[in-house]
Recover the amino acids of this structure.
């Protein structure tokens, strides 16, 4: 990973290898769990926030969108 970080000329194979390392070591799952927990915390706070229902709906949709993306 140290040799690859920040390189713009990675091959498709190198990218696949990096993705495999991140998955096989459990790093991806750990980050996804942290994102999920933080999203849940944010949604609880949002439910109690003094905002309009329309704003709450939009912010809830945004939270789900940004926390659910997959690369």
């Amino acid at each position: 990973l140290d040799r690859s970080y920040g390189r713009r000329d990675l091959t498709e194979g190198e990218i696949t290898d990096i993705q495999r390392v991140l998955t096989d070591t459990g790093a991806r799952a750990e980050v996804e769990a942290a994102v999920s927990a933080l999203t849940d915390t944010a949604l609880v706070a949002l439910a109690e926030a003094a905002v309009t229902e329309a704003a709450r709906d939009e912010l809830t949709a945004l939270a789900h969108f940004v926390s659910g993306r997959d690369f």
